[in-house]
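Hello,

Our lab assistant flagged a job as stuck in the queue for most of the afternoon. It eventually completed. Since we weren't sure the result was trustworthy after the delay, we are filing this so someone can double-check. Below is the sequence as submitted and the structure that was eventually returned. Let us know if re-running is recommended.
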Amino acid sequence: MESRPADARHDGGSVTCFGGTREPHENETECARREILEELGWKVGPLDKRIELWIGPASSPRSEPRFIATFFTADAPAANVPLYPEPGHTILWVAPHDLPSTNLSRWHRAVLDAHAQSPPGLVKVGLDS
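-- returned structure --
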């Protein structure tokens, strides 16, 4: 996870997962691999698609939910693998028992709670906007 700078464009001052925007030629997995390499300097191993996050407008229940992001799980890098976060960002290793007291963004709190409480396989998480 990463601690975002207070002046970050999104979720400043909170703890989030690494990620970014998918390029037109990429599938979800290719995007995740590229973003992890760009943001951490790490060539990640196998990825498991785990969570889809959808946001629905609370003011209009007839509107369709909007897809926000896909979250993957992967094995952590070995202790001797150096990681290189983007300037101003700090890498955090957060143990599962420490997640409740971690200043997670709203979206990341919902995704990690769903991951912890769900059986293996793809989970779709929905939040009101």
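-- support follow-up --
The delay was a queue issue, not a problem with the job. The result is valid. The chain has two helices and six strands. The mean pLDDT is 88.
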